[in-house]
Design brief:
By secondary structure, the protein is an alpha/beta fold. The protein has 6 helices and 19 strands. It starts with a helix and ends in a 6-residue tail after the last strand.
Length: 398
Amino acid sequence: MNLFKLGAVALAMFLGVSATSASATSLGRVRQYGHVFARNVCGDVQVPGVGRCFAKVLTDARGNILESHPAITRNASTAPAGYSPLNLQSAYKVSGSGGAGYTIAVVDAFGDPSAESDLGVYRSKFGLPPCTTANGCFKKVNQNGGTSYPKADTGWGQETAIDLEMASAMCPNCHLLLVESTNDFINNLSAASNYAALHANAVSNSWGGSESGTSSYEADFNHSGVAITVSSGDSGYGVQFPASSPHVTAVGGTSLVRASNSRGWSETVWNGAGSGCSALYAKPTWQHDGLCAKRTVADVSAIADPNTGIAMYGPINARRSGWMVFGGTSVAAPLVAGIYGAKGTTASYGSNPYSNTTALFDVTSGSNGNCGGTYLCTGEVGYDGPTGLGTPDGTTAF
């Protein structure tokens, strides 16, 4: 164990949280988002050297997870609550075709024993083709590529389900590689992402942590030609690593609602999306906003608000799975990875959208915090921090 990891362990013990699993202690506290309540499934505590997933599950006011049932579904007992793949394909003008021969990897901490079977339920429910180990579409490995999987964790298992299902929603024909890191330490999550980038065309990371002490891990995200998407965060204005890496596509968050416009949908800034200026990492050559001397987060964005959440099938607890509704930029990062997959081309780090800004839906209203009213935390015409250049209008920008 290196000194940085030892320091994280010591601090975690001092704070009274698990040194090996920030998520396994408990769900985060109940918060209200518009008309709904939700909790962070990987807890609220941010420990240096530890990555936290950015998934938020809908609950009642007391914090009990809301399972989809006829009382909260949009179509009685025939469909789960939350947006479906068809809804998301409609909102982002993606056909659901393409992606043959393309592999999307998702990186998550700990193990999810029901990952493949839960994915099967989701894909079957929404008419997506099977993606299994047997047909060669699905593969699960640990961070070293082996089959000795980490111990299970429900919160990270829910994150895993989101990642696999959002990638599926945008690219039903893509192959899926699940890479499970030993635990939620950033060094292990980064090593898992490095393995994933060597074995996939796109990699989704729906987790993050403090930038402090991460410079030795940044090289794990430097893979030219591989589209590496990273969630910008779920606590509002502020920067997380690895979203701040200059070698990734940092994905912010929006509220997505139906509208009577030509698109049929509209979006505003989700107030939980991360954004801002990196304190460590250089600005990539394709980024030209004025207030940040270093890397600015985010690059693009997609649905993240729990109040406009997505349908997900995954572990309710260690004993069973079920339908739930989720939000967080954990939804947005794998969704964008799926759009890279649907297009089926290589990525030049995070630069692709900057060469195709007209192929994005500009998000021009809303805020994620206090930054003096600048674009770093406020939706504006053109580039802004919480939503970057905008949200996908088809696959052209990617």
